[in-house]
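User: Batch of two.

Assistant: Item 1 of 2:
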Amino acid sequence: EIVLKRLAENGKILRKKYGNRFVYAAKRRRGYTKIYHGLVCTECLIRVYRSKEGKVIQESKFYGCGSIPEWGIIYDTTILLFEFCSQDNFKRKGRMSGKINQYQKNLEKIEGRFDAKPVVLFVIAGNREEVNKFVENEKPLGDFVFTDFHTFLKIPLGEVLRAKVYFWWSGEQVETISL
C-alpha cells in the first residue's frame, strides 16, 4: 500500500476511505462516482463466478461490439453478460429501454466475436416490485434476465446461478427463473 499511497499523494490516482479501508482508483473526469459502481460490479462478478467457474471477459474486450457490458463469463457455449444499473439510471426515462434495444441490435455481433450465445443479466439497484413492473411493461424479448441488487446480495455464495430470483419475459408473462 506504500506505492498506492504515494501515487495518491502525488495526484496520480484517487484514494478514498470506503468503510474502514482505503480504495484506490484511476483518475476520471467524474472523480469517485465510479468507485461504488466498480465495487458493486466486482462483488457481483465474485458471486457469479463462485456459483460456476468460467472464463471471465473484461469490459474492454467488448469494445467494437456496439454494447459493452461490465464483464462477461463464458461457459461452454454460452456467455453471460453483466449489467449493473444504479437506481438513478433505472429511474431515468428511456435509459434501460435504450440499453436493451442496443443489446438486441448487437447480440449477434457479440455471439460472433466470442462464439457463444449471449444471455444478459441486469442487476438493478431498485426495489423488486419496480424491477418486476419494468419487465412486465417493457416485455424485453430475447435472452434478458433481471433482478434487484438487494435480492441478489441475499443469495448465498455459490448459489447465484441456481437461485430462482430472475425476472424473464416469456413472450406472454413475467416468469421468475434461475439461470
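Item 2 of 2:
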Amino acid sequence: FGIHLVLWLAVLGGVLQAQSRVALESTVVVNDDGWAMVMERFESETALENFARYIELNSPGPVANRRLFIDVVEVTDEADHALDFSKRIRDGVLQVEVPQAGRVVKLTYAVRNAIEFLDDHDELFWSAGHIGSGGLQSASLQVLLPAAAAGQYWGQGFLRREDPTIPKVRQWSSRGFVPV
C-alpha cells in the first residue's frame, strides 16, 4: 500500500518560453484525510500585470477523470498584502486573475479531494497547469506527505517544453523514502 504521485508540468500556450522569466515555486502539503494545501509563488523580473493562473479541475484517474474541488484561500504579494483577484470556472478550468501585482504573486488554495483513495494505493495528481500570456522560466516543487506514507511512495513527473532545441517531453520517476 502506498501513494503514487503523478506530477505534470504542462506547456499549454507556450508556458515554458524563456523570454517570460517567471519562476514558480510550489509546495503541496498532503493531509491524511486526502486534502492538500497548495502554496505557489510566482516571481518575475518585472511587474506581473494582468496575471492569470489556470488550474485544471479534471484530474485523470485509473478509470475516468474526476473533478477536483478547489477553494482559493488567498492571493498576496511579496509582503503578504492581499491582492485583488477574480476567479471563475470555464471549460473545466479554474481561472484566477490578478489585474495588478508587483513582481511576486503568492497563491494559496486548498484541494478538498487531492488524494484518490484506491484499493491497492492512493494517488495524488498535481499539475503545474499554466499561466496566461507567457510562461515559466523555471519551476520547483516540494510535496510533503503524511508520516504514514514514509517509505511507501512512488513518483512520476512529466515536463514538456516548446523550445525546439529540447525534446518535447522529459520524464522522470523515483522510488524512494519519505524522511520522517
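The chain is about 0% helix and 55% strand.
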